Amino acid sequence: MAPFRIALLGLGTVGRATAEALLLDADRLAARAGRPLELAAVAVRRPSRLAGLGFSSRVAIMPDPFDAAGSPGIDAVVELLGGLDPAAAVVDGALRGGRSVVTANKHLLAARGPELEAVATASGASLRFEAAVGGGTPVLRLLAADLATMRIERIRGVINGTTNWILDAMERDGLDAAAALAAARAAGYAEADPSFDLDGIDAADKLVLLARLAFGAGITPVQVRRQADEGPGAGRPGIRAIDAGDIRAAAAASRRIRLVAEAHRGGEGIMASVRPRELPLDDPLASARGVGNVVVFEGQPHGTVSVAGPGAGGPATAAAVIADLIALARGEGSTWATSPLEQGHSPAPESVATESAATESRP
Q: Residue 358, SS3?
């Protein structure tokens, strides 16, 4: 069959791992997809990132992501630029042009997901984003497909690998918060500016995507409470206020602190939060170590379903990107599958509630 031609935008940690997989594992991926997955164009602004990849002359290398996404004969655009600019415009343009998109950009999807899905539906393109939540753990695929008949009442999860690595290092190695953050940077798990992780913004974006799939409810990141009123870390967003004393006190009580994302159905709509919690050691979320993620779904008729796996790292996240490319090559549709948002619908604003009357603003 004709090759499935791909434009890859971005050669950061995940982009490079994606390129390596497409180049080095081509035969196995072609067998899984039913046709060759051909890397046709790459957008990269730093030529130094091309070192060691050995692209053939058939791969068009260019600095502008719009040019790469618009290359002739492209079947799918892989957006790994991150952020909103220029990612939002590139993804919107590709979908309007009928080109399917695979992205790991949870911030973009949390902010504009339903709008982009409506564009995809109108043009006949598909929008897939398994890598946006859980890294290499197929959480969204599980929700969209295998748990499609489950009426989910509650989601609980450890869904940010960076903060989990930091909290785990503080407990395991006795580090204070600053030393654990420095170690996370050295290990490649924290950005130069780790605010999105430490303040719970990244986890809130991911929770928005999980809630949309689980409940069909278009909650927004602003509606996710990121600050605890009491207990460890109270008074500041995310894990900013967690210190070594909190970790020691929890351990002495046979408990473990984790940044927990939670959403559930309440009498007034969907309640959503991302806050540090002290967990008993037998809680499934307490088993998340290092950059691992754990997500627990509760509902009927399944009861409780848990999924765990790697939540960060280039190869693991690239594996989710490749899985979405294989799905597209096989003719599968968007990640949102048959949820209400597939049709571009969102519930009325009054059907969504926050856990407090005054929702905090995102920094």
A: coil
